[in-house]
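Quick one: co-fold with flavin-adenine dinucleotide.
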Amino acid sequence: MPVEARGKSIGALIHRREIDPESNFSFGEGGAGTWSDGKLTTRIGRNSGPVRFVLETLVKYGAPEKILVEGSPHLGTDNLVRLLRNMRADLRSMGGEIHFGARADKFIIKDGTIEGVGAACTPVRERARANDSEELGDPTPGLEPTKVFRGDAVVLATGHSARDVYYELHNLGVKLEAKGFAVGFRVEHPQPLINEIQYGKDWGGRVITGRLSTDSANAEHFAKDAKHYVSHEGTLPVASYRLATNEAFDGISNRGAYSFCQCPGGQIVPSSTEDGELCINGMSFSKRDSMWANSALVVTVSPNDAILEPWSAHGCLAGMEFQRDMERKAFMLEGGDMSAPVQRLTDFVDRKLSQCVPSSSYRLGVKSAECHDIYPEPLYNALRNAIVTHFDKQMPGFLCDEALLHGVETRTSSPVRVLRDSTTLQAIGVDNLFPSGEGAGFAGGIVSAAVDGLLVADAIKAKFFAHNNETKLFDGNFASVGYEY
Ligand SMILES: Cc1cc2nc3c(=O)[nH]c(=O)nc-3n(C[C@H](O)[C@H](O)[C@H](O)COP(=O)(O)OP(=O)(O)OC[C@H]3O[C@@H](n4cnc5c(N)ncnc54)[C@H](O)[C@@H]3O)c2cc1C
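Sure, here it is.
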């Protein structure tokens, strides 16, 4: 769905708890990164050619130029929506066709070559208000219920939440492999507390966002120690953090545990794509001016992890089914109304239900629950150990009563990889099928997914336009391991 209509679906989710499986925080024009914090950080090489190309392209479509020089650039949802509209208009002006409301559900493969996809189609006009459709210039009036799109190449970039696509590929014999991922919770602190921990009492009061209520809350927080900050001048941006350890002891061995996708001045949002499942994530607007700081706190699960044994009948899709079961558990824990199960961080480490909980940015409501019982014991142990033994030492004060854990954060990256040839980038055994991005297991974040798209475009050019002396734009291996922003 186009971003404008997607905004309405998100409104219906927040206000009426109705989830549209094709238009939500994860799916729709712009993908999962649209209603996000828009962090443009990546670990695949900040100054590598393709990363610079992605940042410059964002600027070309309206992103502020400062993202080219900032150490931790971010855009915010408001900027992303505007950029996408500009990109859409440009694509159309170059003759590109965009078929909104078309969900690929069949892959037409003959003798080891893909020839196209079949898509279930819903005319966009049915879903958007008439005046919106006019504004969008609805490109797909009267789409047939099922339509076949044929082409020389098919790029598969459906993201890590398109679980039906993995099953369809698996049934067709496309080679998939299980890959490592990470699961956990999203923790939220009052932003003034994070400002204090990171900047100290002297400087924390100097954080200014421009939003009256947020700035007053921050000033009030530091007013207790008024003598400190009045002596300083200037302003500071909202404080952020990053925590990590490779020594989160799970009772038998060590796992990796880390904070992820930290959103200063942000809010927690539901990123579920199907009814009956609850998973959450974080987003923010460009000003990062909410009163809260949230971040995923996750622990690693390896592809052949012993905790996946109960799901082993699903083969390479065991990790995905494990994620789904954790999401169903979280959904049912709170009575199935999309409110989030929560627990004070201090109660989580003490394994006890929170008697009352602080306020939260999650707009569908929160309910106190025994979050410590959601995941298998080794994952709980590792996360608890990471919080107590590592994170609270790296950031003294992180483990506190005001910190509220929200369940569950399961989709940090894809638990599956679609195998592809490292030179041609085609799926192993299927000519002309180009798996790309996070869902295919080759990216983990907005920038690396975009870079992988560039590499695939290069590979397609090399295969189909070699006679035009088209040369590759980029050389080198920029594939990411996932969860790296
Ligand atoms: C709330 C949230 C906040 C995030 N914040 C950040 C951040 O700050 N920084 C960052 O780097 N990353 C962030 N991420 C992660 C980032 O969004 C992803 O890593 C990135 O979007 C992956 O890009 P992709 O193109 O591979 O897949 P996606 O963005 O998931 O895109 C997949 C697209 O395929 C479409 N699709 C799915 N199935 C089908 C089908 N069958 N037929 C047709 N189309 C289909 C979907 O509608 C979607 O548009 C965030 C994610 C979420 C959910």
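If it helps, Confidence is low (pLDDT under 50) at residues 126-139.
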